[in-house]
Amino acid sequence: ALNEQNFSVMWTKYSDTTQATVKYLEEYVASHHLNGWGCYQLVKRFSEQAYADDYPNERIALQSYLLSQLKYRAQVAMSRNDLVLLLPFKETIYGISYLTIDSQKFYIFSYRDSLCPCFRTYDKKFEYAENIFSAALDGNMKIGESKNMEFERLGAILGQKLEAPIYMGNIGLLYSYPLLDNIAYYKQGFSKEFADAILTPLREKTKGMSDTETVSYLLNFVQNGFGYVDDMQVFGRQKQLFVEESFVYGQNNCKDRVGVFSWLVRELVGLDVIGV
Question: CB of 162 within 8 A of CB of 201?
């Protein structure tokens, strides 16, 4: 049965048996520069390897323990016989329910499609676990192998081969992303390798053009360099793409093209871009 005493027993068990695991996860997070969403997904996948599908409460308990050991502010709550994970994020996340605790939104992550709307949680905080999760990208995250991808449709418009290094593990992680405010996509960071590979040939191509000519060229480049596709066709849900995803998939829609276009205009023309 799920109760406070049993949860305490599980927590003590993890404390006694997971020191090596915590150390490994700390090293992985640091070496791959994982952001908060990446850290959550890493711990989630680990818990799903540790416990089978019919042990959802144990998975949640392990996730809350490991994330706390990684110094993230993670809590749990009980909804009848279901344990749920509560995570605070710096960004507004859409499509995920939340509880407000001490004026902070804690988003609810669960293995059930529907939950009883009544929750019980606790007010104790782990003193050293104060980091708030973030889904922002600073350009430093590097998951999996990097491989050069050629973007043939964009290259045809540019008039030369266009390719850039992509960390495919990053793309896999971004596939799982929830929907965020637009600013998270339009103000993302980029790895120097990716940015140089895309911007250098475009900078050379637009050399000598006026600002108006450059913006017009970039608009054509973005509008015709990607196929058009609806989110529901590809993802079965609303999803906004980060810039690298647009290049990898080779297809996107209007809101995604705004992200690519605004990045190119800021970098190559130096003009401010306002999203409306």
Answer: yes
Amino acid in position 222: V
Task: List, for residues 41-63, the tens digit of each pLDDT value.
Answer: 999 999 999 999 999 999 999 99
Secondary structure (3-state) at 138: strand
Write the CA distances from 110 to 56, 91, 254, 260, integer angstroms.
Answer: 8, 19, 32, 33
For 110, phi then psi, to 5°, come to: -145, 165
Residue type, 266: R
Q: Quick one: pLDDT at residue 133?
A: 97
Which residues are CB-neighbours of 51 under 8 A, at least 6 positions away? 58, 59, 62
- Nearest partner of 149 among 168, 131, 130, 136, judged by Cα: 168
CA gap 256, 230 in Å, rounded: 11
What is the reported pTM? 0.91
